[in-house]
Structures are given as C-alpha cells and as structure tokens.
Design a protein that fits this description.
4 strands; single chain; 16% strand; alpha+beta; Nuclear Transport Factor 2, Chain: A; 48% helix; 2 domains
C-alpha cells in the first residue's frame, strides 16, 4: 500500500466513523419521535419471533406512558452490528426509578424497524481482553426478576400441558391456590402481565 493510500485511509476512516455516528443519531431521533407521538405502525415492528409482535407494540406503548420527557433528551450510547442499531439509554419506570434499556432497531436502506428492547444485559464490550476470567454482574433486583421470570414461565408451561390433556377448567382449579394463583392471574387478567414474554408463553 502506497503512502497516498495510507494517507487517504487515515483521513477517510474518521470521516466514515463520524458519518455512521450521525446516521445513528438521525435514525434514533426519528424512532424516538414516532415512539413519543404514538405513530409507530405494525409494519415497523420486526421482532426476533413473530409471537412477540403484539407484546412489542404494548412495550412501546408502556414506554410512551411511563417514561419522562426529559429522559429522551439524553444521548444514547450507540452500537452497530451489521444491520442492527443498538441504543442504550436510561429511562424512568412506573416506580420512579431509572433503568438502562437497550433498544434494538433493524436499519435497511435508510429505513428502521423496531426489533427488541432489553433491560437485563451483560456488557461484553467491557470485559477486557480475551480470554476473560470475569464478567460484569447484574443487580440483585435483576437476578430476582430473572428467577421469577423463569419460575412463572415454567408454571405457564405446566398449565398449558394440563389444559391440553385435562381441560382448561381442570388446570385452573389446580393452580387456583397459593403460588399457582399467579398463573391464573397471568392467564385471566391482561393488565396483570408485566412482560411480553409471559404473553408469548401463554
């Protein structure tokens, strides 16, 4: 590679990186504007699994209702992976506490589609040089939520098996007392659901 090529790359690479950053901001600002206005249509939702399409719409509606307007003024941390744009930003929840969320958008031909949002994630970009011997931990509250999520998912799976073999009424009677009451509420009260994964599991 000649000196001119090296010099050209040294000039162009920072410009290309800067352009990608600007593009990410433009995509995010447009997504944010549609989210806050409630104008994200069903065709702009592309979840990892088709079953999560409706829960994804409800998640976005919940963010519009619960988050504070000033939260959206913060500049997210952007990460690009192929056609995905990941934006990490802290938002205030219904309980008044700020939680970091990672919004994943699929960007193709200049147009974006919402793909996923996650509040429990491990920052593999912060583990240091490989091979790694330690990984960043999550909070105790997040661990408790993950355990509850797994437990409730297992209960719903058992309910579905019983409902298929013995009937829905039999399954509801079995789960009507104690911890099983959670399953009954999950299946009969839509507002009780705290996450789209539970709707998918049902």
């Amino acid at each position: 590679m000649g000196r001119f090529a090296v010099l050209a790359l040294s000039v162009l690479l920072p410009l290309l990186a800067s352009a990608q950053t600007v593009k990410s901001e433009v995509v995010w600002d447009d997504f944010k504007a549609h989210l806050r206005a409630g104008t994200i249509t069903a065709d702009r939702i592309r979840p990892y699994y088709p079953q999560l399409h409706a829960p994804a719409m409800e998640f976005l509606a919940a963010f519009r209702r619960n988050s504070r307007s000033e939260d959206w003024n913060a500049k997210p941390e952007f990460h690009r992976v192929d056609d995905q744009l990941h934006a990490i930003i802290s938002l205030t929840g219904a309980d008044g506490k700020k939680v970091p969320y990672c919004f994943s958008l699929l960007v193709k031909n200049g147009a974006w589609c919402f793909q996923h949002v996650e509040s429990i994630f491990i920052r593999l970009d912060r583990i240091g040089p490989l091979p790694a011997v330690q990984f960043p931990d999550v909070t105790e509250a997040q661990k408790a939520w993950m355990r509850d999520e797994r437990r409730a998912t297992e209960q719903v799976r058992v309910f579905n098996l019983l409902a298929r073999d013995k009937g829905r009424d039999f399954a509801l009677r079995l789960f009507q007392d104690g911890a099983g009451e959670v399953v009954k509420k999950l299946l009969t009260h839509k507002e009780y659901l705290r996450g789209g994964w539970k709707k998918w599991a049902c």
